[in-house]
Design a protein that fits this description.
Number of domains: 1
Radius of gyration: 15 Å
Number of helices: 4
Structural class: alpha+beta
Helix content: 25-40%
CATH architecture: Roll
Distance between the termini: 32 Å
Number of strands: 5
Length: 134
């Protein structure tokens, strides 16, 4: 059985692969690497917890007529069985404008398996979620 350090490294590498997949093939490519029953709680969903398929539908409705141009991770760090990934998404709107927004995902793993992720608008919120007692 791998030790905690090795599992943390594997978890970080999995999240790094997700970001690369988003950048290279879009959200569908990245979500194809996850379990269909994984739980997703994007902050724009107002507390809803979605399956992978539901997340795709939500993002299609949420983003409207925008095309993802680039996904850029700034940092990906292990926190025990969780991984905090901060980065940005650059979108091209149907009106020709390009927008970029930062996002912070806290991903959870159980026995080395990705099971859920929650996004936050700020890194401070994401960090608080890692240590709710702080």
């Amino acid at each position: 059985m791998p030790d905690r350090g090795e599992m943390s490294h594997d978890n970080v590498e999995f999240i790094r692969r997700l970001w690369e997949a988003v950048d290279e093939g879009g959200l569908e490519a990245a979500l194809g690497l996850t379990d269909p029953e994984a739980e997703w709680a994007p902050h724009p969903a107002g507390g809803q917890v979605l399956s992978t398929g539901e997340l795709l539908s939500f993002l299609d409705q949420y983003s409207g007529e925008r095309e993802l141009l680039r996904a850029t991770p700034y940092s990906i760090r292990a926190h025990g069985d969780k991984v905090l990934a901060s980065g940005s998404f650059r979108l091209h709107g149907e009106d020709g404008r390009i927008s970029e927004f930062q996002i912070h995902w806290v991903s959870e793993f159980e026995d080395g398996r990705f099971v859920r992720a929650c996004s936050y608008a700020s890194e401070a919120e994401a960090l608080r979620s890692l240590d709710p007692g702080a």
